# Entry
Amino acid sequence: MAQAVELPRNEEGIAIALGILKQQFGDRFHTGQAMRDQHAHTTTYIKPQAPDAVVFPTSTKEVSDIIKVCAAHSVPVIGYGTGTSLEGHVNAPAGGICVDLSTMNTILSVNADDLDCVVQPGVTREQLNTYLRDRGLFFPIDPGANASLGGMASTRASGTNAVRYGTMKDNVIALEAVMADGRVIRTAQRAKKTSAGYDLTRLLVGSEGTLGLITEVTLKLQGIPEAIRAARMSFPSIDAACQAVMTTIQYGIPVARIELMDELNVRAANAYAGLELPETPLLLLEFHGSDNAVVEQAEMFGSIAEDAGGFDFATTGTAEERNKLWKARHDLYWATLQLRPGAHGISTDVCVPISRLAEAVTGAQAKAEALGLLAPIVGHVGDGNFHCLVLIDLSDADEVARAEEFTAYLADEAIAMEGTCTGEHGIGQGKMPYLVKELGAAVEFMAAIKDAFDPQGIMNPGKIFGPRR
Amino acid sequence: MAQAVELPRNEEGIAIALGILKQQFGDRFHTGQAMRDQHAHTTTYIKPQAPDAVVFPTSTKEVSDIIKVCAAHSVPVIGYGTGTSLEGHVNAPAGGICVDLSTMNTILSVNADDLDCVVQPGVTREQLNTYLRDRGLFFPIDPGANASLGGMASTRASGTNAVRYGTMKDNVIALEAVMADGRVIRTAQRAKKTSAGYDLTRLLVGSEGTLGLITEVTLKLQGIPEAIRAARMSFPSIDAACQAVMTTIQYGIPVARIELMDELNVRAANAYAGLELPETPLLLLEFHGSDNAVVEQAEMFGSIAEDAGGFDFATTGTAEERNKLWKARHDLYWATLQLRPGAHGISTDVCVPISRLAEAVTGAQAKAEALGLLAPIVGHVGDGNFHCLVLIDLSDADEVARAEEFTAYLADEAIAMEGTCTGEHGIGQGKMPYLVKELGAAVEFMAAIKDAFDPQGIMNPGKIFGPRR
# Structure
């Protein structure tokens, strides 16, 4: 397992803060090893680094109290939602206090007339959507995991629906956050648009807890569409599938999801679920709209995709049939792991201009083969974003090294194609070397904001920039 | 005419910078009074404050050279696009150098497959759309004026299409900018989404030239829709019209434009263009999509609006008929000025949650009447954004004072309704007092960014925050 960089610990400050917070939070403050280890679960091949304690606040005031104690004694503060981030975001390389916001999970208001809601950061997306269903509303961002909405905002998450509904940056209207000195700010009001000063909302979205902890999120909502239609089409090659995606997007067909599975993934799905899909690249789609509109959209896609060489087109409007049609995608994670039982799945995440997508995906396939790695590919291809799930034995140092070489290759290639080393997983610890390669001098200005907002460097240290002071 | 705050001038530094820049830029450097006055045209009732010189760079390198000279001698730098900003953004309260970017007007690349383009900041939106038309593409943001795209990014502009396509924050993929010390940064690559570090793109969008000058803009483009359909409907009251808007948005009908004109505006339009519209609140709409989809959308709107009390529904699909249908809106500015010939029109700009829109609009009407002001209202009502065009005699101090009272009332009411004092015009000089009312402590963090990026305070001083040092 790869070593994460350790940062110097402020033992004295940590000891004092632990004492104060234990007194203030009683049985909502934990220093037991199991609890600490659980909060350093990184879902990567980066070694876990546990915090010194975990505290469960229930209000913005309490989050502010915690940060004030940590600020007074120069102690790291690491925000925690559901621990589903993928680049070591919750690691504590200098120790410190993990602030678990899962107990701040109240849906504060739903404004149906305005298509928005205000939630505490620990509310998960499934919790919110369950609550909204009877009101005819939903929140579209779906990163796969049942993540917390505060965490999703912090990492600028997106997922399968982003091609239609955007990412968290497009769906957060305003934030309340506690900053590094304990001050509480609200970044915007509830209006749908504003040009009032610097966009602190978008600055905090994706800041990974390094500038402040999000304590309230105002989100855009959508009406549940009248109709949802699914479709599926196989292609002779990645090139053909990507050509179909490009043309579909250019025609302005408002696809809600358009997912690519490569040959390897389709084979895994067939084996896992007894499906009989052609073992070639596959596109899965979903359309949202009126009854007429979704039928028309699916037909237009079918015609475009056939021109690109697609075959075995299937489309349906009923929920039950939709689930069957998408079964290969829904089971993907478990099916893929069965390609190599016992292996650990490591997810990569690059995003390129869509015109370069076919080249990027086939390049990744060739590189994985050259390195002797099993790395099936799934893509949110309407955005040019794709993930390789590298199946490795974490105890095999050589294999881990090859996986790291593969990750580096992907990032370098994406950057060379005017793309990004991270489409939706963030930088965390894992992508730090590539951020500078990608954005150069711009990173110095990011660091200037970090230093201005958090001069002691206590907010999630060792992330995005590496050690800062 | 209202006095703008004057800031202390660094006479010595300005004199040195003028000398150096004159030598470097020759006949692209101007200190003549007419040129200086033209660049302080503020389109508001704020008094113009001319810069000491105007320079026309032609490359990023030249912009960097200018800013380095200004940084070395602590001289203000004011970016200038087309001078159509509405809150005194281009004023020079401490003098300094106006950098007119209109000569950096090259369309650098159009990537049709990726639906994006890269342009220099002086390219105007009409120039871009003329260039794109033959390629079947368009750039949707339309703030009314034929503004420069760099300026539109700097003020986070939007306009009539924002309900469907978003604002500049949603349509800028990446920026190149020259910062306060002359360093050049690129905020993102060309991928459609990214989670690579802090969102400097969104930080610079709407920063009004106070953090850096934008020298390249990468923009999202749209395919020209297969069909465009227009519609019009009259309503017995503002309440009824706003109810129709809310229901339309809730149903997820993807209107491309939905504009409200109040009674006063409709009366002006009838008088100006010989129309015979019912002199009651009017909604004008545009739908973009497939031939079938736009017909269905217009029908759905018609049915919703009738339920809300709407009458005199008209809809059409041909370009010629569309222009007739929208004539009242197209002529609005000139028609409105005819309500009081010789008067100056001052535009206000607030945005509220859509559930409060009717209350905000009728409140504004009542307040204008109470103050004896003529202030017809037009709204981008799908976003809850509306403008009153206050028709005043700028030489009448009492009237100007009443107009200022009206503006203050609108801002205070919008903020009290969880809205914003500025939906799309920015802060500039005009809205500074309201920014702090609206966002409180958050403004301190905006100021911390300003100080970190521009410690000398040379970038467009006296805007957003007032004098900083």
Notes: The mean pLDDT of chain A is 95. The two ends of chain A are 27 Å apart (CA to CA). DSSP finds 18 helices and 19 strands in chain A. The longest strand of chain A covers residues 212-220.
